[in-house]
Amino acid sequence: MADGLSLIPASVLRNLADKLYEKRKNAALEIEGIVKQLALAGEHEKISAVINLLTVDFACSPQANQRKGGLIGLAAATVGLAAEAAQHLEQIVPPVLNSFTDHDGRVRYYACEALYNIAKVVRGDFIFFFNKIFDALCKLSADADPNVQSAAHLLDRLIKDIVTESDQFSIEEFIPLLRERMNVLNPYVRQFLVGWITVLDSVPDIDMLGFLPDFLDGLFNMLSDSSHEIRQQADSALSEFLQEIKNSPNVDYGRMAEILVQRAGSSDEFTRLTAITWINEFVKLGGEQLVPYYADILGAILPCISDKEEKIRVVARETNEELRAIRADPADGFNIDAILSIARRELTSEWEATRIEALHWISALLARYRSEVISYLNHTFDSLLNALSDSSNEVVLLALEVHACIAEDNKNFWRLVGLLVRNFQNDRVLLERRGALIVRRLCVLLDAERVYRQFSLNLEQEEDLDFASVMVQALNLILLTSSELAELRGLVKLSLVQSSGQDLFVSLYSSWCHSPMATISLCLLAQAYNHASSVIQSLREEDINAKFLVQLDKLIRLLETPIFAYLRLQLLEPGKYTWLLKTLYGLLMMLPQQSAAFKILRTRLKTVPSYSCIEQLKGTSSENPYSQILQFSEDNRNRYAANVANVYNAIDFPSRLQQFEQMQHKHRMHSKSKLQSRNSTPSIASQEINISEESRPPSPLPEIMRPPKSWNNLRQLKP
Q1: For 474-503, how does the pLDDT look when each residue is reduced to its tens digit (9 = 90+)?
Q2: Which are the contacts of 148, defined by CB distance < 8 A and separation ≥ 6?
Q3: How much of the chain is in helix, strand and coil states, percent to nearest 5?
Q4: How many angstroms separate the CA atoms of 223 and 181, rounded?
Q5: At what angle do helices 377-387 and 393-406 cross, to 10 degrees?
Q6: pLDDT category, 638, cuts 50, 70, 90?
Q7: d(C-alpha 619, C-alpha 613), whole Å
Q8: Rounded to 5 degrees, what are φ and ψ at 447?
Q9: Integer Cα distance of 346 and 307 in angstroms
């Protein structure tokens, strides 16, 4: 210390601590000259003493002016050392860096000025302190004093120049420093960081692309900054990196894909658009590297397909198509279960477009990896069944296509029909609103006869008799009205002349017995008029209730549709179709005379040719029931009649009638049991008001059983 004082005149030291800048500057020039002479003489110990004096007595002094003098003195000493400065930098630089945190803004300003002058002298040797200098500049970039910010900016530009021309800069040591600061929110710091990323990326010898995953998330975070300038700078940097990725053969897609997936869900539109654009390019370029990340990528794409921003939707759809077109092998890490999990999750999305694409993915996976998808079916089936209750018809139709694809084998077909029956039972609204659509579409996709036979088999064994009746009525109405089931209706019409029609009739009959009107409808369709009449005759008083009359009303109206045109034409030959007449008159006798259905059917029967219908009915009891079949040529008549007789006998109508009566007996017992149960636990309201069970309004009917407006006062009418 004494050596330092002896080397610098007292007047110089006094001026170095003066409050006037000019005096401090002149003192610094004196110190520069002294140090230069000592350097020429090789007196490095004395130079160290001078630097130590400037550090301890001035740069670290409690007095602000002395600290300012110490900083300018250290810069002057460096200038004096010139080429010899490198060996003294460890003494010179630390006190200057410490001054960057000084509470006095002017001291911080002079610290920037001093370090700028030091850096100009030592250039490349300065790299040794780069990390500490970078940390200090990062803080100064957000300094409250604009003058300090300006000085730090000038110093920053010089340091960038030094780094870009240096061959000693270590990007490996710098990246952790950069990564730690990428999530800072201060706009000045963000500009500072983006500036450094851009500069370093422009240096050919520095591979910033290889370290992109370390700071990519931070750049994306800046896209939502409130400052337009920062967003623009971040976007520019990202665009440059994306272009480099397109031109580079070696890119770490995996780590970056994880970041992009997160950013694709950002609340900021610009961030989502940029992320989905990157994902789009990655899907095109990534190849096998991205296989393990397909599920995550899909999870990011599907929500964006329904984005409110059109640009995002367009890119997301394109990316989705690109991803689905890639054929990956599970052996290469393609996780089918993970993809299915994403698709299942998105089936509950609030957006229709996303739900539709999720179903397309399940369908595509089934087409390519059927066995693997089937093995995960237990996790997927419930979601697919829930999709049938979707508010969108397109979603329901797609879900049915997926179900049909799954149900190609018998085991899954049986399971599908069984679960549909349970769903309809548990959710009557689904049956009412979607039942017809679901059944009709399944008949198209899986063969109508196969579908109806399986429904019938399930409903035959159904223990919930009320539901079975409603379900059979729904299936019957679909059978009688849907264009998709025209071929099936044609087969039922051949029940008395072909064995295939006979088998179908017997299969449906066993469950159609749950509903008298469905049974009668089936017989009319099969032209088994004798049996239809027998069914009508077997009905009891308790069978003819409001629900029955509602269904009868529907049937009478259906008889006027083109589907039953053949039946109306048969009325032109009352002599041949006497059992048809008896059946229709039987239906007429059950209808209230004031009802519209009664008038419709009576009007139709009045058009029957003017034979005496009563005379025709007298002889019906002794005729062969199958004598009503259309006549053929004389040569084929006997052979055809024999064939009809065989088929007719094979159906065994007496046994069918017994089967119907047994089922109706079960329904009667069930109704009585429910009535007794309600009577045994009467509600408080019914006890107080003394309402009888017969006068209490019935519970609301499903739409498929709801009466037309003309039946509003039906309860006062008697058949």
Answers
A1: 999 999 999 999 999 999 999 988 888 999
A2: 105, 108, 109, 112, 140
A3: 80, 0, 20
A4: 16
A5: 150
A6: low
A7: 11
A8: 85, 115
A9: 14
